[in-house]
Design brief:
The complex is a heterodimer of chains A (about 325) and B (about 210). Chain A is built from eight helices and 14 strands. Chain A is α/β, with parallel strands linked by helices. Chain A has two domains: about 190 residues, 3-Layer(aba) Sandwich (Rossmann fold); about 130 residues, 2-Layer Sandwich (Hypothetical Protein Tm841, Chain: A,domain 3). Chain A has a six-stranded mixed beta sheet with strand order 1-2-4-3-5-6, sandwiched between helices. Chain A is globular and about 55 Å long. Chain B is mostly helical and about 210 residues long. Chain B has one domain: Serine Threonine Protein Phosphatase 5, Tetratricopeptide repeat (Alpha Horseshoe). In chain B, helix 3 packs parallel to helix 5, helix 6 packs antiparallel against helix 7 and helix 8 packs antiparallel against helix 9. Classes of the chains: A alpha/beta (about 325), B mainly alpha (about 210).
Chain lengths: ~325, ~210
């Protein structure tokens, strides 16, 4: 797979510098670290939000930094969680005196490093706690949701977290509402081809022609069910059925629907999916407040999509509709 | 026939470990790509390179300091799961001995490895049988503990330890992964060795070669 890169070892550094240059009106790089942040950190008089995880999923996490979303993001190497040292630095950079909430996706590496950073920050006198995102229905049973992976609900969760933080919620209330947002999110993806790591050129997985795989992770790790390629409509229905019964989403619910490309799936395909999604949810009397379509959490050039449904209540809807100014999400 | 290792030995051992990991980075990536996300070799290579660079800069004067410096460099540099786990592997060995200790014998080594293994199991939550690096390290540590009750020299003990790690790594083939990214593969992780377990083998065999 041909990619436009320079020295593979410098990818993360260069990508962060490029991103900071492109969006220098809103964000900056924290000098010497693979951390992107709002230009105006530390923001005083409110709890700060730190997110982060492996690189290679752009626009996740860089583009979800800004007013109304995260204060800063700590970035690891491609598909690897950032080290605790980087996360700790991000915590120190954003803490305006009201503490920091870490909001990140549930993966073994991220948990290890964010936990370590949280401990170190608390030792240094910061108030820190965390909420893990675990929206992926394919990676664990319903009764053990805390083991599930965090995937494409991330931008929605960060939007809610950022809006509520901006509105001045206190530490405990903020943590509660972020957890509620996580609890109200369900996602599932399907992959049509694996991706390649820029450093090695190796494909992370192999998928035969004519096959698709449900439950692929964001890192090209193998999924749980491989089937013959379905139509766009059948794919959409399969995913929605699994998501709907998992929460469950009921008739009368209002949702945000997010359709995410993993990297090489076209808008053309996603609009076909959007059409079926709309008619299918209408048939179930599930109202859609807004449909977000695009690249949110990619896996290099993996082909495939994921769908996230986010159930709104009055409180979550209020925060979802608040303005935000992040490169990946402007409202 | 060496009965003790001093700081010069450990410097040489770290270089040997770094060289071996660099040489095997693609092999480790390939193992990791079948049931993981394919970056393990590259990650470990980056970590070990950072470790030897930091040792060059800081030039620690004690074995304890050397191992802690190497371990911290790995943890700080590579993140992921490998960073904390393999960083802890070295730094816990360093914490197990006093900074004033100028040489370690086989009994000391066995104790250091044991402390390191216990901490890794607590940190990552993996038990033997979960298909992780613990499945290579645990039998390896048991092996050196047995050696330490005899009169063998360190090189012989390390050769045996590395062999035990290799067997442990090979045994992961028949396990279903319960930890990390490969755990999402479920039963499809059967039939493939764990990359981290192989890294343990490479580290220990490089250790043996450098003694």
């Amino acid at each position: 797979m041909k990619k436009l890169i320079n020295n593979p070892k410098d990818i993360v550094n260069e990508l962060i510098d490029g991103y900071a240059a492109a969006h220098s009106d809103i964000v900056k790089r924290v000098e010497g670290y693979t951390i992107t942040a709002r230009k105006d950190i530390p923001v005083k008089d409110r709890v700060a939000i730190v997110t982060g995880g492996g690189s290679g999923h752009e626009p996740l996490f860089e583009e979800y930094v800004g007013k109304g979303m995260a204060d800063a993001a700590a970035h690891g190497q491609i598909f690897a969680s950032p080290s605790s040292a980087i996360i700790l630095e991000a915590i120190k950079a954003v803490d305006g005196g009201k503490g920091v909430l870490l909001v990140y996706c549930n993966y073994a590496g991220d948990v290890l490093n964010f936990d370590m950073a949280q401990e170190m920050a608390i030792d240094e006198g910061h108030r820190v706690d965390q909420v893990r995102i675990n929206d992926d229905v394919s990676s664990g049973p319903k009764d053990r949701r805390e083991g599930r992976r965090g995937t494409t609900a991330a931008p929605i969760i960060l939007k809610i977290a950022g809006a509520a933080a901006e509105a001045g919620l206190d530490f405990d209330s903020l943590k509660k509402i972020i957890q509620k947002a996580v609890d109200n999110s369900r996602s599932l993806g399907v992959s049509l081809s694996a991706c390649t790591l820029p450093e090695t050129g190796l494909a992370t997985f192999s998928l035969e022609d004519g096959k698709m795989e449900f439950g692929m992770g964001l890192h090209g790790e193998a999924g749980i069910k491989k089937v013959d390629l379905l139509s766009a409509d059948d794919t959409t229905i399969t995913i929605l059925d699994l998501i709907i019964q998992d929460l469950p989403f009921n008739s009368g619910d209002e949702v945000v629907a997010l359709i995410n490309s993993y990297g090489s799936t076209t808008k053309m395909e996603m609009y076909l999916i959007a059409g079926k999604l709309h008619s299918y949810l209408r048939g179930k009397q599930i109202k859609i407040l807004s449909t977000e379509i695009g690249e949110f959490c990619t896996s290099q050039e993996m082909a495939g999509i994921s769908i996230t449904l986010f159930k709104l209540d009055a409180e979550l809807k209020k925060y979802y509709e608040m303005p935000c100014f992040a490169p990946g999400f402007r409202k | 026939m060496k009965g003790n290792l001093d700081i010069k030995d450990f410097k040489r051992i770290m270089q040997s470990i770094n060289n071996t990991i660099q040489d095997n980075r693609i092999v480790l990536c390939q193992l990791d790509s079948i049931i993981g996300d394919g970056d393990h070799g590259v990650t470990m290579a980056k970590g070990l390179e950072a470790a030897v660079e930091k040792l060059e800069i800081d030039n620690p004067s004690s074995i304890s300091g050397l191992l802690k410096t190497a371990g911290n460099a790995i943890t700080m540099t590579i993140g992921g799961v490998s960073g904390p786990i393999f960083g802890t592997f070295f730094s816990e060995m360093g914490k197990a001995i006093d900074a004033s200790k100028e040489s370690v014998d086989l009994k000391d080594l066995a104790a250091m490895f044991r402390v390191s293994l216990e901490k890794i199991m607590r940190l990552g939550g993996a038990k033997p049988g979960d298909k992780t690096m613990v499945d290579a390290l645990e039998p390896a540590v048991k092996d050196i503990e047995i050696s330490s009750t005899s009169t063998v020299d360190i090189k012989t003990a390390m050769e045996s330890m590395a062999k035990a790690a290799k067997k442990g790594a090979e045994s992961t083939k028949d396990m279903i992964s319960l930890k990390g990214k490969s755990s999402y593969s479920g039963e499809r992780s059967l039939g493939y060795e764990d990359a981290g377990a192989n890294t343990v083998y490479f580290i220990l065999s490089a250790f043996y070669e450098a003694v």
